[in-house]
UniProtKB/TrEMBL annotation:
This is Major facilitator superfamily domain-containing protein. It comes from the Eukaryota. GO terms for molecular function: transmembrane transporter activity. It is found in: Membrane. Pfam families: MFS_1. Keywords: Membrane, Transmembrane, Transmembrane helix. It is a multi-pass membrane protein. SUPFAM superfamilies: MFS general substrate transporter. Residues 77-96 have a biased composition (Basic and acidic residues). InterPro entries: MFS, MFS_dom, MFS_trans_sf, Proton-linked_MCT. PROSITE patterns: MFS. The lineage of its organism: Eukaryota, Fungi, Dikarya, Ascomycota, Pezizomycotina. CDD domains: MFS_MCT_SLC16 (cd17352). GO terms for cellular component: membrane.
Length: 461
């Protein structure tokens, strides 16, 4: 006979729950178990049912439900205050939402994770929608720059317009140094809402810009702040619901940025000649509005809120004193430094080598299509073979791709296409795996702080 017992209690009572679905006879037929919430001691807020009357009714009382029964040492863990609890389910302040035991996992700090369920996957979907809007626009940098270089900002060099989009990418990651601690202390709701407002304002006003400083303010500053306010909470919130499956869950959410990077360039390429720059950007803004509403409704935290003290909401650069974290941040810095060059200049490169403007926009979409698969497939591999191992392999593939395909590509359109697909796949894992690697270096309640602080340094690349 197999019995699954869960013991919950404080210093006064220990309620023992009997899972009747796990009780069977040696012949495989289920036994009758009393359909009562039995307790080892009488409770003042529930009727006291004698066990003898239950047995007389034809039910069998398992040994664990008998008065005075105590679990063997191997079946329980001891808390610091001397109380016993079942090792079958860790009861911590972080397990506010229950999940079936077949899915729940526990980390080394005693925090429990549902590893699935409707609520957890809705958070992933909300993060996906938010990253679709925020990172989708960041991944459309090449399309915007190629258009502005030939229209509103044609009197400026590509290096000058590049500062606009450099500021955009910089603020997307730099502002996390403050956003991360606020997320850990107060949750994601306000942050995602504020970022959503800025992203929509960015796209609604972009069509009104005519001067260089207009684009710097709207794209570089407003867009960068908005993307950062969505990006950090959307990634970090997933870590509250997944531990063993964190790689694949984060990868699925991160594909939102790739889908946006495919969708937005194609939409803009079609709409620019049809309705003009202003209305084309407003159409994209409407799509972003729908996406960020979904994100605001679904992205949430499982951890209790912390007091708004300086220790909880202000940046703490002392964490760089941890060698593993410092080395990981340095590695991510150099990787990001190289990865954004092709994303920013692939369309301009194609135009400079005689490729049509229409196909140059599509080339960025092809790169982001490869990135879609590169964000979730390595997540499956990483959860099995190791997050750092997988990230190192994909970064090495980026290096080989740049050296063997892009440098000798010249005017060859087929080589440009092959390069875009392979580089997109290899670079896609950087967004999905770097936060998961960082999460291995800290407690989950500090995930936002560590992840965002790391990317603050990375933003200078």
């Amino acid at each position: 006979m197999s019995t699954n017992v869960r013991l919950h209690g404080d210093s006064h009572t220990g309620a023992i729950e009997q899972d009747s679905s796990r009780v069977s006879t040696t012949q495989g037929t289920p036994l009758d178990v009393a359909p009562l919430g039995l307790s080892a001691k009488p409770s003042t807020d529930a009727p006291n049912v004698p066990l003898s009357s239950v047995e007389d009714a034809g039910y069998r009382i398992p040994p664990a439900a008998q008065p005075g029964y105590d679990l063997p040492p191997e079946g329980r863990t001891t808390l610091e205050d001397g109380h016993d609890r079942s090792s079958l389910e860790s009861q911590t302040d972080h397990s506010a939402h229950s999940a079936p035991m077949s899915r729940v996992t526990t980390d080394a700090d005693g925090n429990t994770y549902p590893e699935g369920g409707l609520e957890a996957w809705l958070v992933v979907f909300g993060s996906w929608a938010g990253l679709f809007a925020a990172l989708g626009l960041v991944n459309t940098i090449g399309t915007f720059q190629a258009y502005l270089d030939n229209h509103q900002l044609e009197d400026y060099s590509s290096g000058s317009t590049g500062w606009i989009f450099g500021m955009y990418a910089f603020l997307t990651f730099f502002c996390g140094v403050q956003i991360g601690p606020i997320f850990d202390a107060k949750g994601p709701r306000f942050l995602v809402f504020a970022g959503s407002v800025l992203v929509v304002v960015q796209m609604a006003t972009l069509g009104l810009c005519t001067q260089y400083w207009h684009f710097m303010l709207v794209i570089g500053v407003t867009g960068g702040l908005g993307a950062s306010l969505i990006f950090t909470p959307a990634i970090s919130a997933i870590g509250h619901f997944f531990n063993e499956k964190r790689g694949v869950a984060t990868g699925i959410a991160a594909t939102g940025g790739s889908v946006g990077g495919v969708t937005f360039p194609l939409i803009l390429e079609k709409l620019f000649p049809m309705i003009g720059f202003a209305w084309a950007t407003r159409v994209v803004g409407l799509i972003c509005l729908i996406l960020v509403i979904i994100s605001c409704l679904l992205v949430k935290s499982r951890l209790p809120k912390k007091p708004a003290s300086k220790e909880n909401v202000l940046p703490d650069f002392r964490i760089f004193g941890e060698p593993k974290f410092a080395l990981t941040t340095a590695g991510i810095f150099f990787v990001e430094w190289g990865l954004f060059v092709p994303i920013s200049y692939i369309s301009s490169y194609a135009l400079a080598h005689g490729v049509s403007s229409q196909f140059s926009y599509q080339l960025l979409a092809i790169l982001n299509a490869g990135s879609f698969f590169g964000r979730w497939i390595p997540g499956f591999v990483a959860d099995s073979l190791g997050r750092y191992n997988t990230l190192i392999a994909t970064v090495a593939l980026c290096l080989v791709c740049n050296a063997c395909l892009w440098l000798p590509a010249g005017d060859s359109v087929p080589v440009m296409v092959v390069y875009s697909v392979i580089f997109g796949f290899a670079s896609g894992s950087n967004i999905s795996l770097t936060p998961v690697c960082i999460s291995q270096l800290c407690k989950i309640e500090n995930y936002g702080r560590y992840y965002a602080t790391s990317y603050t340094i990375v933003s200078f690349g």
